[in-house]
Write a structure and sequence with these properties.
Elements lengths: L22 H12 L3 E5 L13 E5 L9
Parallel strand pairs: 1-2
Length: 69
């Protein structure tokens, strides 16, 4: 944490994958294709990707910024 002074999450350009697709859209497609029962994410940043799974999601982050809701 002390070493990374720039924070986490990446720039908007870094959050895009090859083509014009956002990484969260890729996650949604993977959830749909795989039919996962549980999604585990380590390093969730603000937790935006945890809203994508159609079923249960668990996020673990050493620097949480998401507010439980």
């Amino acid at each position: 944490m002390a070493r990374n002074q720039q924070g986490f999450g990446g720039t908007p350009e870094e959050n895009r994958v090859w083509g014009d697709c956002h990484k969260h859209d890729v996650l949604s497609w993977l959830h749909e294709q795989l039919g996962t029962e549980l999604y585990l994410e380590i390093g969730v940043d603000e937790g935006l990707s945890l809203a994508r799974p159609p079923r249960r999601a668990l996020g673990i982050d050493p620097r949480p910024t998401a507010t439980p809701g």
